[in-house]
Each structure stands twice: as structure tokens, then as C-alpha cells.
Amino acid sequence: MSAADVSPARGGKADEPEHLLRLFHDLRQYVAAGLHLSEDTAELGGPARLALIRQQFEAIAEILEVEQATTRRIGGVNLTQLAGECADVVRLTYRAPVIFERATRVMVAGDQALLRRAIGNLLDNACRAAGGAGHVQLRVDVADGEAYIEVSDDGPGFGDVAAGTGHGLQVVAAAARAYGGRLEIASVPGSGTTVRLSLPAGHPRVRSV
Fold first, then answer.
1. Can you give the residue ranges of the Histidine kinase domain (predicted)?
2. How far apart are CA 162 and CA 115, in angstroms?
3. Has residue 1 been placed in a domain?
4. Residues with Cβ < 8 Å from 81, sequence gap 6 or more?
């Protein structure tokens, strides 16, 4: 597995349209999931459906709040719980089964909104690559003092995309840079792709930067 070559985004007004495209791309997942849940065809009972609808609105509000903030709030994020919430969203909008291998509670230092967007993009890419007949595997664990989120698919789609391209991977790479982690991609044409976001493990005090 090799590190992805993703160039850091450059600041300034010239990058604003690209930044907005990434933001809209990420918000689309939660809007689509909310619309699906509001339809009578949603395969959920009343309380479970309402809880998931609320989760979509809270995620949208969280992302928009961070976009408008002048400082970034850094604190302990329960990566296991966050990954589970992201998996719930993509299960509503894609046909590919998402299998989540749950570990014990894994904590990292970070901004929950940015990490939510990063995990959501990893799953979005994998589900699109897997298609209707493929599978997606999601893992969260700790190894050698590092926490990691690993997403694998068995489809051919994502393997045809150059590393570091697209709106989704730019957000994942930004999360890796922001928290001293790394992004690694391993792909075999026709056999699937594995993407791992590794971050320093730990539960720090909340702070603003």
C-alpha cells in the first residue's frame, strides 16, 4: 500500500469554486439520505426512521457550522461511532452492502465534521466502485499506536481513477494533513481498491485553533 500523492489545496479566492464544489458534494450524501428516509419506500419503522432523519440534519448543520467558523475546534472524536454513522448514511443511498468490522472504541484528535466528511467520501468512492453487485468493507482499529479507517471494495471502478483526483479524496487528504496522519491507496485493476486513513491515536483535551 503506497501513500497517495495529493497536492495541498492553495488558498485564495481562486480556489473558492473548487472548495464549494467539495462542500456541495459532501452535503449531497446527507440530503439524498434524508429524502430517501422521507419516502414511504424506506424500509424502517417510525422511531428508527426519525432517528436517522435527525442524524442527517445534525450532520448537515455540523458541516455548515464548521464552514462558517473562524476557528477549528479540535478534540477527542470517537472514530468507531463516527464510522458507524457514516456507514448508515451510505447504506441508504447505495445498493452495495457495507460490512462494518467494529473494533473497540477508537479515539483520535480531530474535528468531527472534517473526519465525518473524510469517512463519508471514502465510503462514497467505494460504493460507487463496487456497484450493485460488489461489496464494501469498513474497518476501524488501532495498530502500532495509530488509529485507522480502512475502506475496501471489490469493484473495478475506483481502481481506474488516478490517486488524488476528485472532490472526495481532496477532503480525505486534507484530514490526513490536518492531524499528522497519512492516506494510503492500494489498487489492483479489476480486483478492487483499499484506502486507509491513518491518524495518531489518543483522546486529547478540546481546544480551538
1. 90-203
2. 22
3. no
4. 105
Whole-angstrom distance, CA of residue 150 vs CA of residue 171: 15
Looking at residue 199, its pLDDT comes to 94
pLDDT in tens, 9-56: 434 444 667 777 778 877 887 788 777 777 765 566 677 778 888 888
Domain with residue 33: its CATH number is: 3.30.565.10
**Residue 127: inside a domain, yes or no?**
yes
* Residue pair 121/171 in contact by the 8 Å Cβ criterion: yes
Domain extent, residue 114, equals 7-208
CB 97 within 8 Å of CB 152: no
Domain assignment present for residue 130? The answer is yes
Q: What is the pTM of this model?
A: 0.73
The total domain count for the chain is: 1
- Three-class SS state of 55: helix
